[in-house]
Amino acid sequence: MGQEAPTLYIVGLGLSPANITAEALEVIRSVDVVFLEMYTSKGPAEFMDQLRSIRGDLIQVSRRDLEDMNSEIIMRVLEGGRNAALLVIGDPMIATTHAVIAVIAKRRGFNVRVINSVSIVCAVLSQLGLSPYKLGPVATITYPRMGVLSMRAYEVLSDNLIRGLHTILLLDIKDDGSFMSASEAVELLKKMEDNGKLGIISKDLAVVYAARIGWGNQSIKVSTIEDVPNIGETPHTIVIPGLLNPVEQEYLVNVLGADEELIRRHMAFINKMVKRGPLV
To answer: In angstroms, rounded to a whole number, what is the distance separating the alpha carbons of residues 129 and 134?
Structure first.
């Protein structure tokens, strides 16, 4: 009977050190080699301190290591007969990068196990009191590439709004590793509106601006496209609600401090979008 193939553990750390599960800790302590990537997202500084206290031999890997080099740095460990863990902020399979790494490992004959944790998608909905049953497709607002501005986030937002669904808009990461701010994202949405002309980027739209969800200094503010609040350092996330039930409305107003008149205008605007339907 041959020896069992080595295992790659793709381990979600959650959004803060408090989110690290007992299962994740066991894997981090037991595998032969531990890698960490912090370019698809980032955590507070104490995350690194916590991880270093668990494994002093932690190896930090870059986008180039995992994407351009096809994760060869990890595959070499597995080929040497050792088990490895790749630690990622949030839940592992929110980023396509990690799914690709799992595929590469399986194709080479290695075992793969995914250790789940809290993702920005579930955490932000929970913090905003919005129903996950009404969440539409998630999109990322991206920087223009080679002079071309992708309209994908705008199209997803439009489709969600006409169905009365909530939209989570994740924000892009620059090549230098810095994160897009909410104000940059809004300027790009306005440019998309100029191009698409669907009338969805409106002063009547309630927008939730969230920063550092899950961190000790998280910030959440409800405002409009025209008035982007100061929510501090990145990472930022933008959520645009769809139709709101009474409990969701009460939560936005009474827990998050949203202006009641804005929520009324928002509901009238979304109802108009739902009745109008797609412009085709």
So the answer is: 12
40/76 Cα distance (integer angstroms): 22
Secondary element (H or E) of residue 220: strand 219-223
**Model pLDDT for residues 135-157, shown as the tens digit of each residue:** 999 999 999 988 899 999 999 99
15 annotated among ligand-binding-site residues: yes
Residue 165 known to bind ligand: no
How do residues 22-55 score in pLDDT, each as one tens digit? Answer: 999 999 999 999 999 988 887 778 888 889 999 9
Can you say whether the dihedral through the CA atoms of 123, 10, 16, 25 is positive or negative?
A: positive
* 120 belongs to an annotated ligand binding site: yes
94 assigned ligand-binding residue: yes
List phi, psi (to 5°) of 101: -60, -40
Helix (H, G, I), strand (E, B) or coil at 265: helix
Confirm whether residue 220 is marked as ligand binding.
no
**Which CATH code for domain 7-115?**
3.40.1010.10
CATH architecture of 120-276: 2-Layer Sandwich (3.30)
The better pLDDT of the pair 49, 108 is held by: 108
Domain boundaries, the chain: 7-115, 120-276
In DSSP notation, 111-174 reads EEEEE----HHHHHHHHHT--GGGB---EEE---BTTB---HHHHHHHHHHHTT-BEEEEE-B-
pLDDT at 1: 39
